[in-house]
Fold this protein.
Amino acid sequence: MKRLAALVVVLFGLFFAGLVVRGQEKPDKKDETTTSGARPEGPQAKVQVVFNEYDGDKKIKSLPYTLLVRVGTDGRDGPWSKIRMGSRVPVVTGTAGGQAQWQYVDVGTSIDCTASAVPEGRYRLSLTMERSWPESDGASEAKTMPSDPEQRLRQPIIRQFRSDNAVTLRDGQTLEANFATDPVTGKVIRLEVSLNVLK
């Protein structure tokens, strides 16, 4: 009888120890991925945006910008990549006590880009692009100084271009995404977008 009781105690102890060990085991990586909702990262791509400015048929300016973008998977966009580059331009807003009052205006280029993989080996880019620049030689209304009416302060004209666009490209492809004409100067801006997937 004592041996039977001892055997029961031993079996119970082994069963309890097995439960403890199982409870301490870590779930495998596959289970962790499933429960956490994490998605595998897609490839990284180099996206180049070029602002080409023309005066008639003559190219007078070419401004390239390059972003590294992580491509989203499962039809979802990847994280946003952003570029901000510019300056602050002083603009006269008025006068007080014979002194000019200044305000600084931000000008430059802002580009936001996100990407996702789509069927047939293509990639969809969502782009928000904005460029602004001063033209000091443009026609502007000059302000006079109260202390010296002959003294005039030239005001720069701030020109602006903005585009929200979605384009679909293959690896290595370049596409002219936008074509816009400035109604005042007649200058033309052609916007090119290219994509290269990094291996």
